[in-house]
Amino acid sequence: MDAGVCVLELLGVFLSLAAWLCSLATAIMPQWLTLSTDLLPTESYELGLWETCVVQDLGGMECRPYDSLLGLPPDIKLARILMCLAVATGLLGVLLPIPGLHFVNSCCGEDECGAKRVLKMLGGVFCFLAGALGLAPVSYIAHLTVVRFFDESVPDVVPRWEFGDALFCGWAAGFLHLVAGVLLVTSCLCVRVRGDHRRHPRAAWRRPPTSAAERSGKRTEYV
To answer: Which parts of this chain are annotated as the region Disordered (predicted)?
Structure first.
C-alpha cells in the first residue's frame, strides 16, 4: 500500500469526523440568527432551530424552546429536517470508511481489498450527501435573512435579524464534508488503478530480446 493513499484515507476520515462535529454543533446551536435593538441595548436575541434565547450584557442567558412544531415557520421546519438528515448521513460518512482503512487489517486478499474500497467509496458518497444537505438549509436561511434585511417595505426603525455563528459553522461543516468525500473517493480510485497495473503488467511481455545470444538461441533451438 502506497503511503500517499494511506495519508488520503486518514485525512478523509479525520475531516469527515471534524465536519460531523461541526454539523452537530450547527444543528444544536441557537445562534442561527441574532438581533439587537437600540431600545434595549443591554439585551440581544438569538434564534435557533429548537429554541430562542435572550442574552444580557451581564452574562445571563435565558432560552425557551418552541411551543409547537406545527406553528413553526416553514424555513425553520425545512432547516430542521435537512440538518437532521445531514447529521445522520455525516455519521455514516464517518463510520463506514473506518473498516476500509489499510491500518485496520494490513494483510488482505483481493476480495477483502475490494470490500474495503467499497466501504471507503460509500463513506465518500455519504460525505458528499451530508455536505449538500448541510449547506442547503444554512444557505437558504442566509438568503432569506439578506432579503428581509434589505426589504425596503419595512421601516428602518424596525430591527432586523442578522447572521449568527451557527451559519458560519454550518458553512465550514459543509465544506469539510465535501473535501473529505473527495479525499476518500480519490484514495479508492488510486488503489484500484494501481491494483489493475499490478495485475496486468505490460513491460514484461513487450520487451524484445536484448542480447545476441538470446536471439541466436531462439534461431538455433529448432535446428
So the answer is: 202-223
Q: How far is CA 133 from CA 72, 88, 107, 156, 170, in A?
A: 20, 10, 37, 34, 10
CA angle 104, 123, 105 (to 5 degrees): 10
Listed in order, strand segments (DSSP E) in 76-216 are 162-163
The pLDDT assigned to 163 comes to: 94
CA proximity to 93, closest of 135, 125, 64, 140: 125
CA distance 24 to 43: 27
For the domain made up of 3-31+72-198, the CATH class stated in words is: mainly alpha
d(CA 184, CA 180) in angstroms, rounded, equals 6
How far apart are alpha carbons 36 and 54 in whole angstroms? 10
DSSP assignment letter at 99: G
Strand runs labelled E in the chain: 33-36, 43-47, 51-56, 61-65, 162-163
pTM given for the model: 0.80
Domain extents for the chain? 3-31+72-198
Candidate from 10-14, 157-161, 174-178 with smallest mean pLDDT: 157-161
CA distances 45 to 40, 131, 164, Å, are: 10, 28, 10
pLDDT class of 89 with cuts at 50, 70, 90: very high
